[in-house]
Write a structure and sequence with these properties.
The complex is a heterodimer of chains A (381) and B (321). Chain A contains twelve helices and twelve strands. With 381 residues, chain A is of the alpha/beta class. In chain A, the strands form two sheets. Chain A has an eight-stranded mixed β-sheet, with helices on both faces. The radius of gyration of chain A is 22 Å and the shape is globular. Classes of the chains: A alpha/beta (381), B mainly alpha (321). The interface between A and B is large, with 50 and 29 residues.
């Protein structure tokens, strides 16, 4: 019996309605994220992976976005059905988020202290809030001692929680425990000299430092699910490596579930337990990262893997996928990949997009490895 | 901090100093009118129609009223009117602008309120400000409060437009999405995250606007005679100029000094407003402070003057980690 997933997405479809037409950014995406697992999502630019990340905590701009169908269930709460005023209770302490561009994700008008302190204040208010629920995720500790603290409770959707006096107290700038918590959060992301950083404004930090602050901010709310939307893409390669190493270390320390979105197969291979491959708004393959990389069961995944440079083999030019990514406004009939697929048959062009199904045969015995291809068993790596 | 930032910009510093002096003078005169050497409006028939002298630095009018004393007596009124009308417009128009800008999701209650606010604003903006103010005075009648109300009624729509525009820019920034994703409630996003980022342009505009309000108010008083000097209980620069206008060829000092008072006040607020932009924006603040350091060192002849922008960039280096 598998543990109950932290997040369960069922048949989620999202459209962007624009003057030029309706763009199907997500089409019937179903995905479960079990507690403590790191799920990676890869795909090309415009395949809907960021839309997926933003749709989960419902921070998509509506309009132009529109959630057409589907459910996003986070620890028993259907987020898609929540009224807008209750959403803040799920965000932050429930589902944390790290954004692609650290340059623009911090408010330029506030010092680093205020940015991190706000996140900690939000968590404290939620913890004091009525109707506490035990967090199901594993507990983790911020102190450098490594001693474990009790699981962080997640408040029920009631805002802002606590009495007026308590709110006032947690808001106080002089609160030494708040200052200590901010320093700890910054130390957690390996910021040297957090005392100095506290007083700086975001524009005074480099991209890598800003991304660390973003991570510190997200983690200080102790989310049960962290969505990392290409956290390393906007950084240069050396800083990318630093941030990635940091995230890998943190994953071991905090043991929270993570949805890691990236277009970089190498990054995903390094960090994720499970991998989902997206193409033209659909999840086309899902499985444990080793299996998917060794034995891809969808032609697109296979082509994607072949198109990635491999340092062990240095012969010949890299393979490319013929054709180009279809416009989300005019998707091909049947399987969206069939015009570019070597295995495509008549069936692929006619029948509607196949559903993600367990793959039989080698590697797929556990049922964890699933593919949305009619010819999954014929795909050879 | 403020002084240090302003010191790099002598004109803004001058504006700041003049504004401070004017405000202190206005407060003193307001609470202790006895500090003035003569009572305002008191005639001294033995000293009628004199040009500037030691006894009467700005001269006297035909009836021997001291022009300096009357200009000074009008200072608290004009200053308070400028600040209050601009301030009330900032609060009222600014609030409406934030509401109209932030809560405008299509097919929601927000869109309705936003549309109503903007269309009413358009209605006011359709007329030239001065003409509208004059029309309001005609409708409301003469008197200090009537004129204040008339100018305020023509003034607030500009702040709606300004605040709404700024909110529209800020609310689509990624850091607002980030705050939302961090679980910050909408109300707090508006009050804290959005407001802090639109505060700077609004305050700068407000400061620049105080002078404009004083000019408009004086113009309305000048044209309509709504505050007839020297018969109304309130002395006001525009009304003085209006009253002395026939004397412009024979006793020009009677009209020169009230005009100068308006000029200096408006100029001071404009200069201060320019400098305020640099103080309020944390991004430019650092550059300026560094420029100050560089120019001070540079004056010693030791360090060549360097581009402050370059310096600012260099200081942004990441600490090794």
């Amino acid at each position: 019996m598998t543990p109950e997933p932290v997040l369960s997405i069922a048949n989620l479809s999202v459209d962007y309605v624009a003057a030029a037409g309706t763009f199907h950014a997500l089409i019937e995406v179903s995905l479960d994220i079990p507690p403590g697992r790191v799920v990676g999502i890869v795909g090309e630019t415009g395949c809907g992976k960021s839309t997926l990340g933003h749709a989960i905590p419902r921070i998509l701009p509506i309009p132009p976005a529109r959630i057409v169908s589907g459910k996003v269930v986070f620890r028993g709460i259907d987020i898609t059905a929540l009224p807008a005023w209750k959403l803040p209770t799920v965000r932050g302490t429930g589902i944390g988020m790290i954004f692609q561009e650290p340059l623009n994700s911090l408010n330029p008008a506030f010092r680093i202290y205020d940015q991190v302190a706000e996140a900690i204040r939000i968590r404290r208010l939620r913890e004091k809030g009525q109707g506490l629920r035990k967090a199901e995720g594993a507990p983790y500790d911020y102190s450098t001692t490594g001693k474990s603290i009790p699981a962080s409770p997640l408040s029920r959707p009631f805002l802002p929680g606590g009495t007026a006096a308590e709110r006032l107290q947690t808001r106080s700038v002089e609160d030494p425990s708040l200052r200590k918590a901010v320093l700890e959060a910054l130390s957690l992301v390996r910021i040297n000299d957090p005392e100095t950083i506290l007083r700086l404004y975001p524009h005074e930090l480099s991209g890598g430092m800003r991304q660390r602050v973003m991570i510190a901010q997200a983690l200080s709310e102790r989310p049960s699910l962290l969505i990392a939307d290409e956290p390393t893409s906007a950084l240069d390669v050396t800083i990318q490596a630093q941030v990635l190493t940091l995230m890998k270390e943190l994953i071991d320390e905090i043991q929270t579930s993570i949805l890691f979105i990236s277009h970089d197969l190498g990054v995903i291979a390094e960090i994720a337990d499970d991998i989902g491959v997206m193409y033209a708004g659909r999840l086309v393959e899902f499985g444990p990262v080793g299996e998917v990389f060794e034995q891809p069961r969808h032609p697109y995944t296979r082509s994607l893997l072949r198109a990635a440079p491999d340092r062990s083999k240095q012969e010949g030019p890299l393979e490319s996928i013929p054709g180009s990514v279809p416009s989300l406004a005019k998707l091909p009939s049947g399987c969206a990949f069939h015009p570019r697929c070597a295995l495509a048959t008549k069936e692929c062009a006619v029948s509607p997009g196949p559903v993600l199904r367990p793959v039989t045969g080698a590697g797929g015995a556990s049922g964890a490895h699933r593919s949305a291809c009619w010819h999954a068993e014929e795909v050879v790596s | 901090m403020v002084i240090r930032t302003l010191r790099t910009n002598p004109l803004s510093l001058a504006g700041f100093v003049i504004v401070v002096i004017l405000v202190i003078a206005a407060v003193v005169i307001w609470f202790d009118p006895g500090i003035l050497p003569y009572a305002p409006l008191s005639a001294d028939y033995s000293a009628g129609g004199q040009g500037p002298s030691w006894a009467h630095p700005c001269g006297t009018d035909t009836l021997g009223r001291d022009i300096c004393v009357n200009v000074a007596a009008a200072l608290p009124t004009d200053l308070a009117i400028g600040v209050m009308i601009a301030g009330a417009s900032l609060l009222f128009g600014g609030t409406l602008g934030v509401v109209a800008g932030y809560y405008n999701r299509p097919r929601s209650l927000g869109e309705v309120s936003s549309t109503v606010i903007l269309r009413v604003t358009d209605l006011f903006l359709a007329f030239p400000a001065l003409l509208l103010a004059l029309a309001f005075v005609v409708a409301l009648g003469h008197g200090l409060y009537q004129v204040v109300l008339a100018v305020f009624l023509t003034w607030w729509p500009y702040y709606v437009r300004l605040a709404r525009g700024e909110v529209l820019t800020v609310k689509n920034q990624l850091y607002i999405s980030a705050a939302r994703a961090a679980g910050v409630p909408e109300r707090r996003i508006v009050v804290r995250h959005v407001l802090r980022n639109i505060l700077e342009p609004l305050l700068v505009y407000f400061t620049l606007d105080v002078g404009t309000v004083i000019v408009t108010f004086s113009t309305v008083a000048f044209v309509t005679g709504a505050l007839p000097y020297p018969f109304a209980s309130t002395i006001e620069w525009g009304a003085m100029i209006s009253f002395y206008e026939p004397l412009v060829t024979t006793q020009p000092w009677t009209i020169l000094f009230p005009s100068l008072a308006i000029l200096v006040t408006v100029l001071a607020f404009s200069l201060l407003g320019d400098g305020l932009r640099d103080i309020l924006d944390p991004r430019s603040r650092r550059v300026i402070v560094q420029a100050a350091v560089v120019s001070r060192v540079g004056m010693g002849g030791l360090t060549p003057l360097s581009n402050p922008d370059e310096d600012a960039e260099m200081s942004v280096e990441e600490s090794p980690s």
